[in-house]
Amino acid sequence: MTKVLKRLGVAALAVCVTASAVLPANAAVSFQYPTSVTGVTVSGHPLTDSELSKGSYLINLVKGHSIFFDVHSTQPVNFVSGNGKCAQTGVIQSYNRSADTTRYEITGTGSTGQTCGLYLDNNRIFQAQIKDMPASQPFISDTTEPLTKKVGQTYTFKITLKDPHSNATFVAGNGSVLSTYAPPGITGPNGSKIYYYSVTALKTGGCGIYVSVDGVTYHVFSETVVTNTNTQPSAPSEPSKPSQPSKPVPTTHYTFTPTVTSSCKTYKKGIDVSEWQGTIDWDTAKKAGVEFAMIRAGYGNNNIDA
User: Fold this and answer.
1) What's this model's pTM, rounded to 2 decimal places?
2) Other CB atoms closer than 10 Å to residue 115's CB: what's the count?
3) Nearest Cα to 37, choosing from 15, 56, 59, 17?
4) What residue ranges define each of the domains in the chain, with the CATH number in brackets?
5) Most-buried pick from 2, 33, 37, 253 (CB within 10 A)?
6) 10 phi, psi to nearest 5 deg
7) What is the CA radius of gyration of the chain?
Protein backbone atom coordinates (compact mmCIF):
# COMPACT_ATOMS: atom_id res chain seq x y z
CA MET A 1 0.00 0.00 0.00
CA THR A 2 3.02 2.32 0.58
CA LYS A 3 3.85 1.98 -3.10
CA VAL A 4 0.28 2.87 -3.96
CA LEU A 5 0.42 6.09 -1.94
CA LYS A 6 3.68 7.13 -3.59
CA ARG A 7 2.30 6.28 -6.99
CA LEU A 8 -0.91 8.27 -6.64
CA GLY A 9 0.45 11.23 -4.74
CA VAL A 10 -1.07 13.33 -1.97
CA ALA A 11 -3.65 14.99 -4.23
CA ALA A 12 -5.22 11.63 -4.98
CA LEU A 13 -5.48 10.32 -1.44
CA ALA A 14 -9.22 11.01 -1.25
CA VAL A 15 -10.12 10.31 -4.87
CA CYS A 16 -13.22 8.34 -5.82
CA VAL A 17 -14.14 7.45 -9.43
CA THR A 18 -17.70 6.81 -10.58
CA ALA A 19 -18.36 5.41 -14.09
CA SER A 20 -21.54 5.76 -16.15
CA ALA A 21 -22.33 4.01 -19.43
CA VAL A 22 -24.12 5.67 -22.37
CA LEU A 23 -27.85 4.92 -22.09
CA PRO A 24 -31.05 5.68 -24.03
CA ALA A 25 -32.55 9.12 -23.45
CA ASN A 26 -35.34 7.64 -21.34
CA ALA A 27 -32.94 5.63 -19.19
CA ALA A 28 -30.72 8.22 -17.51
CA VAL A 29 -28.83 6.70 -14.62
CA SER A 30 -25.51 7.00 -12.78
CA PHE A 31 -23.42 3.97 -11.92
CA GLN A 32 -21.24 4.43 -8.86
CA TYR A 33 -17.75 2.91 -8.92
CA PRO A 34 -15.83 4.26 -5.87
CA THR A 35 -12.05 4.32 -6.03
CA SER A 36 -9.45 5.32 -3.46
CA VAL A 37 -5.95 4.32 -2.51
CA THR A 38 -7.44 1.54 -0.41
CA GLY A 39 -9.83 0.20 -3.02
CA VAL A 40 -10.71 1.09 -6.60
CA THR A 41 -13.56 -0.36 -8.63
CA VAL A 42 -13.83 0.33 -12.35
CA SER A 43 -17.03 -0.71 -14.11
CA GLY A 44 -17.79 -3.27 -11.44
CA HIS A 45 -14.24 -4.60 -11.18
CA PRO A 46 -12.47 -3.97 -7.85
CA LEU A 47 -8.83 -3.20 -8.59
CA THR A 48 -6.20 -4.94 -6.52
CA ASP A 49 -3.33 -3.02 -4.97
CA SER A 50 -1.11 -4.43 -7.67
CA GLU A 51 -3.44 -3.30 -10.48
CA LEU A 52 -3.78 0.14 -8.94
CA SER A 53 -0.07 0.68 -8.42
CA LYS A 54 0.78 -0.52 -11.94
CA GLY A 55 -2.27 0.92 -13.72
CA SER A 56 -2.44 -2.43 -15.45
CA TYR A 57 -6.18 -3.09 -15.42
CA LEU A 58 -7.49 -3.22 -19.00
CA ILE A 59 -11.00 -2.27 -20.10
CA ASN A 60 -12.59 -2.61 -23.53
CA LEU A 61 -13.88 0.55 -25.23
CA VAL A 62 -15.95 0.28 -28.40
CA LYS A 63 -14.81 2.69 -31.09
CA GLY A 64 -17.12 5.71 -31.32
CA HIS A 65 -18.74 5.06 -27.95
CA SER A 66 -18.20 6.71 -24.59
CA ILE A 67 -18.00 5.84 -20.92
CA PHE A 68 -18.42 8.45 -18.19
CA PHE A 69 -16.50 8.77 -14.93
CA ASP A 70 -17.41 10.72 -11.84
CA VAL A 71 -14.27 11.59 -9.92
CA HIS A 72 -14.71 12.41 -6.22
CA SER A 73 -11.84 14.25 -4.62
CA THR A 74 -11.07 16.86 -1.99
CA GLN A 75 -9.76 19.18 -4.72
CA PRO A 76 -9.96 19.34 -8.53
CA VAL A 77 -7.94 16.66 -10.31
CA ASN A 78 -7.05 16.03 -13.91
CA PHE A 79 -8.24 13.00 -15.85
CA VAL A 80 -6.51 12.59 -19.21
CA SER A 81 -5.72 10.01 -21.88
CA GLY A 82 -2.15 9.06 -22.63
CA ASN A 83 -2.90 9.08 -26.38
CA GLY A 84 -5.57 11.38 -27.81
CA LYS A 85 -5.60 9.37 -31.07
CA CYS A 86 -6.65 6.26 -29.09
CA ALA A 87 -9.12 7.76 -26.64
CA GLN A 88 -10.21 11.29 -25.92
CA THR A 89 -11.30 12.69 -22.57
CA GLY A 90 -13.51 15.61 -21.73
CA VAL A 91 -15.18 17.31 -18.79
CA ILE A 92 -18.95 16.84 -18.64
CA GLN A 93 -19.49 18.55 -15.28
CA SER A 94 -16.90 20.79 -13.66
CA TYR A 95 -15.72 20.20 -10.12
CA ASN A 96 -18.54 20.65 -7.63
CA ARG A 97 -17.08 21.71 -4.29
CA SER A 98 -20.22 20.87 -2.31
CA ALA A 99 -20.29 17.34 -3.71
CA ASP A 100 -16.49 17.06 -4.29
CA THR A 101 -17.29 15.63 -7.73
CA THR A 102 -16.13 16.09 -11.31
CA ARG A 103 -17.65 14.21 -14.26
CA TYR A 104 -15.37 13.14 -17.10
CA GLU A 105 -15.89 11.34 -20.38
CA ILE A 106 -13.73 8.91 -22.33
CA THR A 107 -14.49 8.16 -26.00
CA GLY A 108 -12.89 5.48 -28.16
CA THR A 109 -11.29 7.09 -31.23
CA GLY A 110 -8.37 4.83 -32.16
CA SER A 111 -7.90 1.79 -34.34
CA THR A 112 -9.12 -1.64 -33.33
CA GLY A 113 -6.67 -3.20 -30.88
CA GLN A 114 -4.97 0.07 -29.98
CA THR A 115 -4.31 0.57 -26.25
CA CYS A 116 -3.74 3.67 -24.19
CA GLY A 117 -3.52 4.63 -20.53
CA LEU A 118 -5.96 6.80 -18.56
CA TYR A 119 -4.37 9.09 -15.97
CA LEU A 120 -5.59 10.74 -12.80
CA ASP A 121 -3.22 13.56 -11.76
CA ASN A 122 -0.48 12.00 -13.91
CA ASN A 123 -0.95 8.58 -12.34
CA ARG A 124 -2.17 5.84 -14.67
CA ILE A 125 -5.19 4.16 -13.04
CA PHE A 126 -6.17 1.80 -15.87
CA GLN A 127 -5.88 1.21 -19.60
CA ALA A 128 -8.41 1.12 -22.45
CA GLN A 129 -8.27 -1.02 -25.56
CA ILE A 130 -10.27 -0.09 -28.67
CA LYS A 131 -12.54 -2.75 -30.15
CA ASP A 132 -15.08 -2.88 -32.94
CA MET A 133 -18.80 -2.92 -32.40
CA PRO A 134 -19.73 -6.54 -31.59
CA ALA A 135 -21.64 -8.35 -34.31
CA SER A 136 -23.83 -9.85 -31.62
CA GLN A 137 -24.52 -9.21 -27.97
CA PRO A 138 -21.22 -9.57 -26.06
CA PHE A 139 -22.94 -11.33 -23.18
CA ILE A 140 -25.27 -14.20 -22.38
CA SER A 141 -28.38 -13.54 -20.31
CA ASP A 142 -30.33 -16.26 -18.55
CA THR A 143 -33.47 -14.16 -19.12
CA THR A 144 -34.60 -12.90 -22.52
CA GLU A 145 -38.38 -13.37 -22.55
CA PRO A 146 -40.82 -10.75 -21.15
CA LEU A 147 -41.68 -11.11 -17.48
CA THR A 148 -44.77 -10.28 -15.43
CA LYS A 149 -44.31 -9.62 -11.71
CA LYS A 150 -46.49 -8.31 -8.89
CA VAL A 151 -45.78 -5.14 -6.93
CA GLY A 152 -43.21 -5.93 -4.25
CA GLN A 153 -41.64 -8.92 -6.01
CA THR A 154 -37.90 -9.03 -6.79
CA TYR A 155 -36.33 -10.82 -9.75
CA THR A 156 -32.63 -11.62 -10.21
CA PHE A 157 -31.06 -12.44 -13.56
CA LYS A 158 -27.57 -13.51 -14.60
CA ILE A 159 -25.30 -11.85 -17.17
CA THR A 160 -22.16 -13.65 -18.36
CA LEU A 161 -19.72 -11.59 -20.42
CA LYS A 162 -18.09 -13.31 -23.37
CA ASP A 163 -14.89 -11.27 -22.94
CA PRO A 164 -13.39 -11.13 -19.42
CA HIS A 165 -11.87 -7.71 -20.22
CA SER A 166 -15.33 -6.22 -20.81
CA ASN A 167 -17.34 -4.48 -18.10
CA ALA A 168 -21.08 -4.24 -17.66
CA THR A 169 -23.63 -2.04 -15.99
CA PHE A 170 -27.41 -2.14 -16.19
CA VAL A 171 -30.45 0.09 -15.85
CA ALA A 172 -34.24 -0.11 -15.88
CA GLY A 173 -35.92 2.10 -18.45
CA ASN A 174 -38.31 3.52 -15.83
CA GLY A 175 -36.93 3.88 -12.33
CA SER A 176 -40.36 4.64 -10.89
CA VAL A 177 -41.62 1.19 -11.95
CA LEU A 178 -38.52 -0.88 -11.13
CA SER A 179 -35.71 -0.26 -8.68
CA THR A 180 -32.34 -1.84 -9.47
CA TYR A 181 -29.55 -3.51 -7.53
CA ALA A 182 -26.19 -4.03 -9.23
CA PRO A 183 -23.48 -5.64 -7.07
CA PRO A 184 -19.96 -5.95 -8.51
CA GLY A 185 -19.24 -8.71 -10.99
CA ILE A 186 -17.61 -11.94 -9.90
CA THR A 187 -15.18 -14.30 -11.59
CA GLY A 188 -16.83 -17.48 -12.81
CA PRO A 189 -15.52 -20.78 -14.17
CA ASN A 190 -12.67 -20.49 -16.68
CA GLY A 191 -12.13 -16.86 -15.74
CA SER A 192 -15.47 -15.62 -17.10
CA LYS A 193 -17.03 -12.47 -15.63
CA ILE A 194 -20.53 -12.85 -14.19
CA TYR A 195 -23.03 -10.31 -12.89
CA TYR A 196 -26.17 -10.99 -10.87
CA TYR A 197 -28.55 -8.06 -11.28
CA SER A 198 -31.87 -7.59 -9.45
CA VAL A 199 -34.99 -5.52 -10.11
CA THR A 200 -37.82 -4.92 -7.64
CA ALA A 201 -41.34 -4.02 -8.75
CA LEU A 202 -42.41 -0.67 -7.24
CA LYS A 203 -45.69 0.09 -8.98
CA THR A 204 -47.80 -1.08 -11.92
CA GLY A 205 -46.43 -0.36 -15.37
CA GLY A 206 -43.82 -1.69 -17.75
CA CYS A 207 -40.28 -0.93 -18.84
CA GLY A 208 -37.23 -2.42 -20.49
CA ILE A 209 -34.07 -3.76 -18.86
CA TYR A 210 -30.83 -2.55 -20.47
CA VAL A 211 -27.26 -3.80 -20.07
CA SER A 212 -24.32 -1.67 -21.18
CA VAL A 213 -21.07 -3.39 -22.09
CA ASP A 214 -18.00 -1.32 -22.95
CA GLY A 215 -20.16 1.77 -23.52
CA VAL A 216 -22.71 0.07 -25.80
CA THR A 217 -26.24 -0.45 -24.49
CA TYR A 218 -28.39 -3.48 -25.31
CA HIS A 219 -32.01 -4.28 -24.55
CA VAL A 220 -32.16 -7.58 -22.63
CA PHE A 221 -35.83 -8.11 -21.74
CA SER A 222 -38.93 -6.25 -20.59
CA GLU A 223 -40.96 -6.53 -17.42
CA THR A 224 -44.61 -5.75 -16.71
CA VAL A 225 -45.70 -5.04 -13.14
CA VAL A 226 -49.27 -5.83 -12.09
CA THR A 227 -51.22 -5.19 -8.91
CA ASN A 228 -50.53 -7.52 -6.03
CA THR A 229 -53.93 -9.17 -5.57
CA ASN A 230 -53.03 -11.24 -2.54
CA THR A 231 -55.99 -11.22 -0.18
CA GLN A 232 -55.72 -10.70 3.56
CA PRO A 233 -55.96 -13.88 5.58
CA SER A 234 -59.44 -14.43 6.92
CA ALA A 235 -60.08 -14.13 10.64
CA PRO A 236 -59.95 -17.45 12.45
CA SER A 237 -63.35 -18.95 12.98
CA GLU A 238 -64.68 -19.44 16.47
CA PRO A 239 -64.21 -22.93 17.85
CA SER A 240 -67.33 -25.01 17.52
CA LYS A 241 -69.28 -25.55 20.70
CA PRO A 242 -69.54 -29.10 22.00
CA SER A 243 -72.82 -30.67 21.06
CA GLN A 244 -75.35 -31.25 23.80
CA PRO A 245 -76.26 -34.85 24.51
CA SER A 246 -79.52 -35.70 22.79
CA LYS A 247 -82.56 -36.48 24.82
CA PRO A 248 -83.85 -40.02 24.60
CA VAL A 249 -86.67 -40.42 22.15
CA PRO A 250 -89.69 -42.05 23.80
CA THR A 251 -90.66 -45.39 22.37
CA THR A 252 -94.14 -45.42 20.89
CA HIS A 253 -95.94 -48.64 20.21
CA TYR A 254 -98.18 -48.79 17.19
CA THR A 255 -100.83 -51.35 16.29
CA PHE A 256 -101.17 -52.10 12.58
CA THR A 257 -104.31 -53.65 11.11
CA PRO A 258 -103.36 -54.94 7.70
CA THR A 259 -105.95 -54.95 4.95
CA VAL A 260 -105.33 -57.58 2.31
CA THR A 261 -107.01 -57.25 -1.03
CA SER A 262 -106.89 -60.20 -3.38
CA SER A 263 -107.76 -60.16 -7.01
CA CYS A 264 -107.90 -63.97 -7.15
CA LYS A 265 -111.09 -65.99 -7.65
CA THR A 266 -113.04 -67.19 -4.61
CA TYR A 267 -113.13 -70.93 -3.89
CA LYS A 268 -115.44 -72.92 -1.55
CA LYS A 269 -114.00 -75.28 1.04
CA GLY A 270 -115.28 -78.82 0.95
CA ILE A 271 -114.48 -82.37 2.07
CA ASP A 272 -114.39 -85.75 0.31
CA VAL A 273 -116.25 -88.36 2.41
CA SER A 274 -116.28 -91.09 -0.21
CA GLU A 275 -114.19 -93.45 1.87
CA TRP A 276 -115.23 -92.19 5.30
CA GLN A 277 -116.81 -95.06 7.26
CA GLY A 278 -117.52 -93.31 10.56
CA THR A 279 -120.07 -90.80 11.77
CA ILE A 280 -119.58 -87.21 10.52
CA ASP A 281 -120.20 -84.32 12.91
CA TRP A 282 -121.54 -81.82 10.43
CA ASP A 283 -121.80 -78.98 12.97
CA THR A 284 -118.10 -79.26 13.75
CA ALA A 285 -117.27 -79.37 10.02
CA LYS A 286 -119.39 -76.30 9.36
CA LYS A 287 -117.68 -74.37 12.13
CA ALA A 288 -114.36 -75.31 10.54
CA GLY A 289 -115.43 -73.56 7.35
CA VAL A 290 -116.56 -76.58 5.37
CA GLU A 291 -119.23 -75.51 2.96
CA PHE A 292 -119.87 -78.77 1.12
CA ALA A 293 -119.18 -82.48 1.11
CA MET A 294 -118.74 -84.82 -1.84
CA ILE A 295 -119.03 -88.56 -2.49
CA ARG A 296 -117.33 -90.13 -5.49
CA ALA A 297 -119.32 -92.50 -7.63
CA GLY A 298 -116.13 -94.29 -8.71
CA TYR A 299 -112.47 -93.85 -9.65
CA GLY A 300 -112.71 -95.01 -13.28
CA ASN A 301 -110.64 -97.68 -15.11
CA ASN A 302 -107.32 -97.50 -16.89
CA ASN A 303 -106.95 -100.24 -19.49
CA ILE A 304 -103.84 -100.85 -21.54
CA ASP A 305 -104.03 -103.15 -24.62
CA ALA A 306 -101.68 -106.06 -24.61
Assistant:
1) 0.54
2) 15
3) 15
4) 1-132 (2.60.40.10), 134-228 (2.60.40.10)
5) 33
6) -65, -35
7) 52
